[in-house]
Amino acid sequence: MSTKDSPKVQHVISSHSISLMVSGLEDPYDTSWEVEINGAATLLESKKDIFFALNTLKGANPFADVALESGEVDIFSFIRLTPSVLMFRIYGEALAGAQPTVITIRRKDGSNWPVIPR
Predict the structure, then answer these.
(1) Residue 56: enclosing H or E segment and its boundaries?
(2) Residue 118 pLDDT more than 60?
(3) How far is the C-alpha of 45 from the C-alpha of 4, rounded, in Å?
(4) β-strand 76-77 against 2-3: which pairing, if any?
């Protein structure tokens, strides 16, 4: 969910490739972790998908709450993220030379999603 014509939305329009990094800093530091998610992003177009996304975000995203309460949905674009590869690493293991855990997410037909070059 982002305002129309935001840099996020412009990126999705110009390139469907996405990479998202989520990290958790822990004490001690070597137990900190990160998850990298690579995949594709598309804009939702159907009202059914948009309202499903809004209701899913309800209570967790204040912009979704305001959009639902006010009916001002058209000022936002809604982005669907479809992951293809997830990588998980713990910093201490990475510093010791261990490779990240890699999970490839397959399509319903069993084929792999295309891997986005790094």
Answers:
(1) helix 47-57
(2) no
(3) 13
(4) antiparallel
d(CA 80, CA 6): 15
Residue pair 21/9 in contact (Cβ under 8 Å)? The answer is no
Nearest to 81 by CA among 23, 24, 17: 17
* Chain segment 35-65, per-residue pLDDT in tens: 999 998 999 999 999 999 999 999 999 999 9
Which residue type, as a one-letter code, is found at position 101? T
C-alpha span between 43 and 63 (Å, rounded): 17
Name the DSSP letter for residue 57: H
Distance in angstroms (rounded) separating the CA atoms of residues 17 and 114: 10
Query: What DSSP state is assigned to residue 110?
Result: S
Number of C-beta neighbours around residue 18 at 10 A = 20
3-state SS assignment for residue 24: strand
Q: What is the identity of the amino acid at 85?
A: V
